[in-house]
Amino acid sequence: MTRIESDVVAVLVVRDGIPPVGGDEAVAEAGGAAVLIGTGCAGAVAELPIRRGWCAEAGPFAAGAFAKALASPLTDVPRILLPASPDGRDLAPRLAAELDRPLLAGATRFTAEGTDLVRWDGRLGVQVDTPPACVATLVPGVRGALPFSGDREVTTLDVELQHADAEVLEVLEPDPATADLAESSRILGAGAGLARGELSGPDAIAVLGELADALRASVGATRVVTDAGWAPYERQIGTTGVVADPDLYIAFGVSGAAQHIGGLGNPRHTVSINTDASAPMTAMADLGLVTPAQPLLAELVRRLANRSAGQEHHA
Questions:
Q1: Helix (H, G, I), strand (E, B), or coil: what is residue 64?
Q2: For the whole model, what pTM was predicted?
Q3: What domains does the chain contain, in order, with CATH numbers?
Q4: In 151-187, which positions are buried (b, 16+ CB within 10 angstroms) versus exposed (e)?
Q5: What share of the chain is helix, strand, coil (3-state, %, to 5)?
Q6: C-alpha–C-alpha distance, residues 260 and 244, integer Å
Q7: Tens of pLDDT along 68-93?
């Protein structure tokens, strides 16, 4: 069986040619060396900054079987890094157990000299010495990665799958209401301005949740909102909260403080709803609506409700 020789390697679970969230960052942190395992691995190579890669077509994801199959090829690799995606968080501890190594979960930096870890829902940073041999998971959205267009060295990795310790019956799509904001493609952000109007802060957040359900989006918030208790702290976006990078971000009454924007990443589309035309969030938005957030939110919910009722009537 092939033995991989490298100081550090990223391990990514690929599903039907789609790399995991944070996979590009894990590959970049590993210096471009990566093992791809799953289905359609060869098709995922071009989407990642891989300089040297190994592709193992191993079928549908099975954490126990994948860990056992990868243990032998990765025996001589001191540092192994996985993205802290759902599959990565599932595979990493099993792989660490198979290799009899410590697991460094929730890393934001992973080098031979030291590793930075986040604890307490991202509110505490810890620096530790990197063990000579270990497995780690990298938090998505905190490092970033540049695309790679140079020559790649990609080979096939033959692995022997044994019976998995658990049988996967079904893979369910994540519920946007409870999904990790780092993995959400659509986020509706709640700021202090959302509480200005007839509704109280908690009631306005509840209505925002209704809109999010209709749009298959997640609800995020600023620190002011979470400190007030209107939303839980795991919904806080910012340098002291969750680092997100959605395709769409709609900010309701968010002024755009540096701490909040610092955790927002680089959304592909940004909409700001604010009474202040010169607010930082409005200035950075693709579309800025200068209007109170509460009435616009109520109108959006009303129109979506009418649309749904009309579709049910025609059906």
A1: helix
A2: 0.69
A3: 8-156 (3.40.50.620), 181-314 (3.40.50.1220)
A4: eeebeebebeeeebeeeeeeeeeeebeeebbbbbbbb
A5: 30, 25, 45
A6: 10
A7: 999 999 999 999 999 999 899 999 99
